[in-house]
Amino acid sequence: MTQTSLSWRMATGVAATVLALYASPVMAGNEAEVAEHLIELVKIGRGVLSEQMKNINDPAKADKGFTGDYMSSQVVERFKKSTKLDLRIPNVVPQANLYLALVQAEKEVVDEAQPIINKPGISFKGFIPAVFARRVGEQFYKKSGVRMKLTGIDYRNANNKPDDFEAEVLRMFNDPRHPKGQSYVRNTMVDGKPVLRMMDPEYAGPTCLGCHGSPKGDRDVTGMKKEGWKEGELAGAISVVLPLK
Question: Per-residue pLDDT for the chain (245 aa), expressed as one digit of tens each?
């Protein structure tokens, strides 16, 4: 076993002991940074999956070699490169238990998808980054009480429908006066409890347009109608609702 593998197993072991205990909200003062890191972890996971799409959708292959362990190791490595935070050494990373809970959710979603990922004879499996992110958000909420989801005006899944707060921020993101790429954060109340809400805008890239681009109304590979997006247009946002002390 490599040192990296051993360190990751140790880290996930620490996470497993604290997941059930993570009900305590995040301390005030660093909550915005915590939300930013959670968003970064989701983006990294989606990026790893995006790189695997050709492999996953290869009808000639059975075992793709794309496992939950591969996902989690890649996320941890890339998160360290991006943030300088090494989740393999959780005792030196503030909120490591929370971050590891999200990594664990990403691992579990990939593991649960193994039967379809490795099924030969099918060229499109439907296990796409948007589906991955939605399932990760659902798993992560069960572990942590932190809500994360993709949302947008042109949502396809009812679970991605924006609430009133999200709809307001999406309109702001779509305003040309708003600096492109700038996230929005606000301390507020949800169900009578203090939370931090952060939304990070996302824009249509080349890989989005195959399903969401032109011509508007045509059916994409999933059978859904294309929205007619153009590259660089607002596609939606990652929304985080983080409980606070």
Answer: 444 444 445 454 434 433 333 434 555 568 999 999 999 999 999 999 999 999 999 999 999 999 999 999 999 999 999 999 999 999 999 999 999 999 999 999 999 999 999 999 999 999 999 999 999 999 999 999 999 999 999 888 898 999 999 999 999 999 999 999 999 999 999 999 999 999 999 998 887 877 777 888 888 777 888 888 788 899 999 999 999 98
Looking at residue 19, its amino acid is L
The token pair that represents 118 in the structure block: 């490795």
Break the chain into its structural domains and give their ranges: 1-145, 146-245
Contact 170, 151 (CB under 8 A): yes
* CA–CA dist 8, 89 (Å, integer): 8
In the sheet that holds 147-151, the strands lie side by side as 147-151, 234-243, 193-203, 184-190
pTM of the model: 0.87
CATH number of 146-245: 3.30.450
Cα angle, residue 32 at apex, residues 30 and 34 outer, rounded to 5°: 70
Helix, strand and coil content of the chain, in percent to the nearest 5, comes to: 50, 15, 35
